[in-house]
Structures are given as C-alpha cells and as structure tokens.
C-alpha cells in the first residue's frame, strides 16, 4: 500500500529512460506519421495523444489504485459530464439527477428531455434520489454537492441502483480522488471537473471520466471523438504536472477550510454554515464514513444577512479574490446568487480555501466580517 503523497508524484510517469525527462513535455500534433493501414496508438489528434494518455493513466491510478481502470480526459468538466450522460442514455430511458447539483445540470436536463429521455430529480441530502430511482437507466450523484455541501451515501445509492440494472455515476469534483473514491464505493463512473482542485492553479479547464468497465470506457471515448471535446496537449501536460502536489494541496486546503469553518461557527450574522469536516455539520457522520480522513474538501459555504452585507464582506477581504470556481491555491469567494443558477439565498457565500496559512486567512475573514457588520 503506497500513500497518496507518494503515489501522486509518480502517477502516470513513463519508465525512467536515460537522458529523458521524468514527465515528457506536451506533444503538439494534429496527426502522426502513419504508414500503411490506419492502426496504431497515435493516428489523428482527435483520437489520441501521448500527453493525454499519460494524464489518463495518472488519474486512473488515483481514482482506482487497487484495480485497473480506464480514464477518458476531456476539454472541461461539462464535456465529461455530457459525454457520460449522452453516450449512455437513449430515447425512452429515465435518468435521475440531483436537484441541487452543478448549476449547468438544468440546461443538461432540458437537452436530455428534448431527446426523449425522462429526467427525474431529488435532493442530495438524506439519499432522497432513492425515492425516484425505479426503472431508471442511470443515477447521477454529486457528493459533496456544489454549492450546498450536502452528502449522500454512494454505497447505498449504488447498491439500490445496481439491484435494478441502473448505471451509477458520481461527480467527484469537490472531493478529488484523494478525498473520495467512488469506484471503490460501487459507482460505475467517477466523473469530475479537473478545472477545480485536481489541477488547483486556476489556469486550466479540464474534465475526465474514469470507469473499470472497458466497454463503458469505449463508448465514452467514442462520444469524445464524435463531438470533438478533446483536451489540449498543453492543458493535459499542465494538469499532469499539477498532480504531483495534489496530496499537499488537498491536505493543506482541507485543514484551512476546517479552521475557517470553526472560526465562523460563533458569528451571529451567519445563519447557515456548511462544511462536511465540521463535526456539527449534518453531512459530517456520512462524510467520515465514505470520504478519506481529514479530506473533506476546500469549500465552506455560509449565509450572510443579505446581498449588500455579502458584497461589503467580499470587498473588505484582502487575501481572498472575488472570483468563481474553487479548489485553487489562492483563496476565492463569491456571492453565489449572482449567477441565478443555484437555489441559494442572496447572502450565500461559497468560499474556497487556498494554501495560505490558515491563521492569516481566518484573521482576514474575521476582520472583513467585522467591517461588513459595522456598515450595516
Ligand atoms: C465546475 C464544476 C463542473 C463543471 O466543470 P467545468 O470544468 O467548469 O466544465 C461540474 N461539476 C462540478 C461539481 C463543478 O464544480
């Protein structure tokens, strides 16, 4: 058993060769030399590229360290999500989605319905998706959910879905493969946006789907080729390079998020505070059971009295960028309701903790909260 910090620094690397780099650079090629019949590992740039192949091997080693798995990398998390849904579902099928998942799922729902697929939704909390599972072809889970941070029981939902022949996919973006391994918990697919904590520097869009089933991987790969949602070699290489620090970042960011959540617990202006690592959180017991110890993610969500109060708070922060996305090395925060896609109050803040020293970050946040409260 190798530890995660050890595994990540070598994940997906080729065997050492004299006078070659540890991680070969990005290979920019629209096509490869191809004599004779059109067979080979690398033919045309939409079908395969050695830089993606190395990244895919690396992600597979993290999502499924003990069993071989197939990973298909995409241009973004949405490309990966759409690939799994649209490659597996046909007209007349039913699919179960969370009603509190990523903000683009409603747009995906509309598209699925236009193709004659029945879409049912239920909340992530309390495993409510169990109630609408009957006869479904695929169950889509997002845990912890973004931005509400509810957690559902992957093993329980996967067992129920499999007992009636449904496939199970888990959006593992928030946890990362070092925080949670959906395939070990019974899922058929672990799907994620690599744009967030996986790559962690806020400079790359990327996505992937990992499965242990070769036929499922083939159908997802064919979808990628058909719609052309391929990752660029440069992005793939940057992502692979970033994986080496994933264990360091995940540990530091989770510790910082917990420190921040604990510091916010007694603030009178905060109505709802969520972080799965907080022992008092409704998600905590289940998170402890299915997530890896101390790795409950870098996101803390909380609600301030109103829009103006939230905007004063964000403006008063000095170590935190007002920006969307999460999982990066620099802390970011935003008033989530500004997008209009999530069912959250006007004062709801999604806070992403970076790798700063937790005490500096907590001091900055408490000072900004004081400033925001004074002007109320
Ligand atoms: C960001 C995000 C996505 C979409 O990923 P992109 O890389 O932005 O396309 C999907 N699911 C979750 C949970 C996300 O946070």
TrEMBL record:
<dbReference type="InterPro" id="IPR015421">
    <property type="entry name" value="PyrdxlP-dep_Trfase_major"/>
</dbReference>
<dbReference type="GO" id="GO:0030170">
    <property type="term" value="F:pyridoxal phosphate binding"/>
</dbReference>
<keyword id="KW-0456">Lyase</keyword>
<dbReference type="GO" id="GO:0019343">
    <property type="term" value="P:cysteine biosynthetic process via cystathionine"/>
</dbReference>
<dbReference type="InterPro" id="IPR015422">
    <property type="entry name" value="PyrdxlP-dep_Trfase_small"/>
</dbReference>
<dbReference type="InterPro" id="IPR000277">
    <property type="entry name" value="Cys/Met-Metab_PyrdxlP-dep_enz"/>
</dbReference>
<protein>
    <submittedName>
        <fullName>Cystathionine gamma-lyase</fullName>
        <ecNumber>4.4.1.1</ecNumber>
    </submittedName>
</protein>
<dbReference type="Pfam" id="PF01053">
    <property type="entry name" value="Cys_Met_Meta_PP"/>
</dbReference>
<feature type="modified residue" description="N6-(pyridoxal phosphate)lysine">
    <location>
        <position position="196"/>
    </location>
</feature>
<dbReference type="InterPro" id="IPR015424">
    <property type="entry name" value="PyrdxlP-dep_Trfase"/>
</dbReference>
<comment type="similarity">
    <text>Belongs to the trans-sulfuration enzymes family.</text>
</comment>
<dbReference type="GO" id="GO:0004123">
    <property type="term" value="F:cystathionine gamma-lyase activity"/>
</dbReference>
<dbReference type="GO" id="GO:0005737">
    <property type="term" value="C:cytoplasm"/>
</dbReference>
<keyword id="KW-0663">Pyridoxal phosphate</keyword>
<dbReference type="GO" id="GO:0019346">
    <property type="term" value="P:transsulfuration"/>
</dbReference>
């Amino acid at each position: 058993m190798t530890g995660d910090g050890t595994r990540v620094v070598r994940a997906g690397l080729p065997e050492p060769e004299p006078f070659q780099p540890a991680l070969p650079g990005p290979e920019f090629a629209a096509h490869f030399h191809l004599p004779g019949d059109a067979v080979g590992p690398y033919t045309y740039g939409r079908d395969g590229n050695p830089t993606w192949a190395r990244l895919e091997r690396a992600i597979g080693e993290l999502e499924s360290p003990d069993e071989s798995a197939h990973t298909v990398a995409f241009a973004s998390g949405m490309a990966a999500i759409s690939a799994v849904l649209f490659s597996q579902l046909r007209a007349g099928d039913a699919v179960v989605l969370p009603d509190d998942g990523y903000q683009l799922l409603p747009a995906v729902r509309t598209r699925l319905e236009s193709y004659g697929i029945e879409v049912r939704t239920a909340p992530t909390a309390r495993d409510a998706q169990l109630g609408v599972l009957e006869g479904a072809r695929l169950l889509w889970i997002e845990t912890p959910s973004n931005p509400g941070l509810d957690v559902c029981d992957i093993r329980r939902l996967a067992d129920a879905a499999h007992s009636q022949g449904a496939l199970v996919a888990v959006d593992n973006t928030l946890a990362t493969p070092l925080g949670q391994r959906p395939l070990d918990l019974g899922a058929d697919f672990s799907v994620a946006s690599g744009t967030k904590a996986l790559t962690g520097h806020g400079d790359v869009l990327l996505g992937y789907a990992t499965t242990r089933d070769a036929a499922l991987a083939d159908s997802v790969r064919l979808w990628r080729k058909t719609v052309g949602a391929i990752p660029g070699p440069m992005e793939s290489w940057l992502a692979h390079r970033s994986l080496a620090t994933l264990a360091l970042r995940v540990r530091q960011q989770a510790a910082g998020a917990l420190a921040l959540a604990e510091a916010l617990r007694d603030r009178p202006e905060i109505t709802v505070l969520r972080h799965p690592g907080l022992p008092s959180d409704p998600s905590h017991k289940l998170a402890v059971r299915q997530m890896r110890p101390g790795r409950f993610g870098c996101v803390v969500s909380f609600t301030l009295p109103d829009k103006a109060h939230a905007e004063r708070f964000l403006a008063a922060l000095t170590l935190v960028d007002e920006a969307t996305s999460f999982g990066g090395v620099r802390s970011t925060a935003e008033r989530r309701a500004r997008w209009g896609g999530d069912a959250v109050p006007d004062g709801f803040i999604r806070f992403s903790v970076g790798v700063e020293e937790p005490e500096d970050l907590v001091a900055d946040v408490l000072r900004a909260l004081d400033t925001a409260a004074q002007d109320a």
